[in-house]
């Protein structure tokens, strides 16, 4: 009896190890992962309905120059197109001090990729107030802002008092191009009470302006 149980335990153990080994080979093999990932997605979302909705949303998003890469095909998980995109992907960095000049002409600055219309009636009827606390790297902050910016929302950005002049001036220049972006400048220490204070000041500022 004891012997039979230990044999069963051994077989189960071996099967478990084999499963782990199989899973680890899947993780290492890009090909197998590609086969699995669409399967998971197909399971979770109703692709027929989501497909047309995604295309509709894509048409409304500001278009960014993607060097001849077809984003719709990427969303359709076309391996060739994904390879092409990976080939041309570069990380663009812009020095903080350049934003003062970039945002000097608001007409051209707003065309860098900010949404100028609400995405849907539903969103328009439900404006959101965002509070951001920033410290460095305007190009990254700009990318975030471009993704969440909608004309019906409010944005209060706390530029840390102790950050450099370039970030301060650049952020002021960007904010001055939009009626719904306001900035304040509380000295924030990470994970300290001042972080909450900065948010409270932002809430007050948004209350004043909106
Ligand atoms: C990747 O870029 C290189 C150099 O520009 C080019 O020769 C090659 O054909 C590209 N590969 C793909 C898949 O687009
Ligand atoms: C600002 O940019 C727009 C669009 O590029 C251009 O038409 C306009 O002349 C510029 N204004 C100034 C003052 O340079």
TrEMBL record:
**Coiled-coil spans in chain:** none
Top-rank taxon: Eukaryota
Keyword Thylakoid found = no
Pfam families this protein is in?
Branch
Q: Which UniProt keywords apply?
A: Glycoprotein, Glycosyltransferase, Membrane, Signal-anchor, Transferase, Transmembrane, Transmembrane helix
Cite the GO molecular-function annotations of the record: acetylglucosaminyltransferase activity
Indicate what this protein is called per its UniProt record: Uncharacterized protein
């Amino acid at each position: 009896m004891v012997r039979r149980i230990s044999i069963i335990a051994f077989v189960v153990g071996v099967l478990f190890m084999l499963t782990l080994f199989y899973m680890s080979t899947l993780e290492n093999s890009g090909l197998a992962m590609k086969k699995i990932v669409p399967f998971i997605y197909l399971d979770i979302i109703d692709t027929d309905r989501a497909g047309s909705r995604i295309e509709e949303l894509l048409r409304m998003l500001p278009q960014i120059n993607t060097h001849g890469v077809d984003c719709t095909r990427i969303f359709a998980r076309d391996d060739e197109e994904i390879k092409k995109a990976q080939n041309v992907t570069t990380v663009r960095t812009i020095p903080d001090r350049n934003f003062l000049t970039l945002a000097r002409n608001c007409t051209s600055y707003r065309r860098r990729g900010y949404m100028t219309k609400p995405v849907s009636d539903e969103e328009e009827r439900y404006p959101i107030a965002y509070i951001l606390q920033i410290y460095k790297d305007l190009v990254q902050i700009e990318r975030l802002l471009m993704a969440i910016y909608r004309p019906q929302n409010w944005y209060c950005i706390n530029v840390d008092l102790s950050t450099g002049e370039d970030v301060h001036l650049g952020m002021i220049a960007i904010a001055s191009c939009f009626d719904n972006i306001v900035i304040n400048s509380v000295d924030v220490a990470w994970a300290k009470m001042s972080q909450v204070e900065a948010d409270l000041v932002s809430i007050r500022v948004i209350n004043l302006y909106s």
